[in-house]
Amino acid sequence: MTGMPFSPPTHEPVIVAVTGASGAPYALRLIARLANAGVTQHLLFSDAAKIVLQQECHISLPQEAHAIPAALADALNISAEQMHSYADHDWFSPVASGSAGLPRMVIAPCSMGTLARIASGISGTLIERAADVILKESRQLILLPRETPLSTIHLENMLKLARMGAEIIPAMPGFYHRPDSIETLIDFVVDRILDHLHICNKESPRWGA
């Protein structure tokens, strides 16, 4: 088995949504990697995501959505220049309409409640509406579910979304690369997301390489 071919670096924007499932470090690492790659990000944080971020990473985000990029830039030592953030019910934001032309979205981590509402076509929050837009426009939606064990309902909802065209990348790190830190395990999962976004990811260890 040989290494995967890489597409040239792309700067198409990405909607990055963070929900209240455990796994906030995945979200932070993804945001940092995208920022370092020069990718414009449209950030959506649920209220529950902010609570989990404080609990798991000791990072407190401001209530004002417009202040979130600067707070993340300070915490992660990255640039806030290409990050935009929107409140949970900002229906006038570009992520709420297909006419904005945003091509792809990642929900990491994705709670089972969010996943179920997206699978059912419920758009009660901006995260759910943005995912609904991506699906109806046949664009790229990547979900990073984090739950265990998985019930029949969870599995059926994931199958339903996969059949709609969503890409399911569970937060399941591998161990064949002999990770020596939690950060290495986090990167393993984030690397898979970057691969599916076709973002140049030369630092990722490859099987057989």
Task: Give an overview of the whole structure.
- This protein has seven helices and six strands; from the N terminus they run βαβααββααβαβα.
- The chain has 209 residues and is α/β, with parallel strands linked by helices.
- The protein has one domain: Flavin prenyltransferase-like (Rossmann fold), CATH 3.40.50.
- The longest helix is centred in the last third of the chain and has 15 residues.
- The chain is globular, with a radius of gyration of 16 Å.
What is the fold's blueprint, element by element?
Blueprint (H helix, E strand, L loop, with lengths): L13 E5 L5 H13 L4 E5 L1 H11 L10 H9 L6 E4 L17 E7 L1 H8 L6 H11 L3 E6 L6 H13 L2 E2 L13 H15 L13
Parallel strand pairs: 1-2, 1-4, 2-3, 4-5, 5-6
Task: Give a concise summary.
With 209 residues, the chain is an alpha/beta fold. The chain is built from seven helices and six strands, in the order E-H-E-H-H-E-E-H-H-E-H-E-H. It has helices spanning 24-36, 47-57, 68-76, 112-119, 126-136, 152-164, 182-196; strands spanning 14-18, 41-45, 83-86, 104-110, 140-145, 167-168.
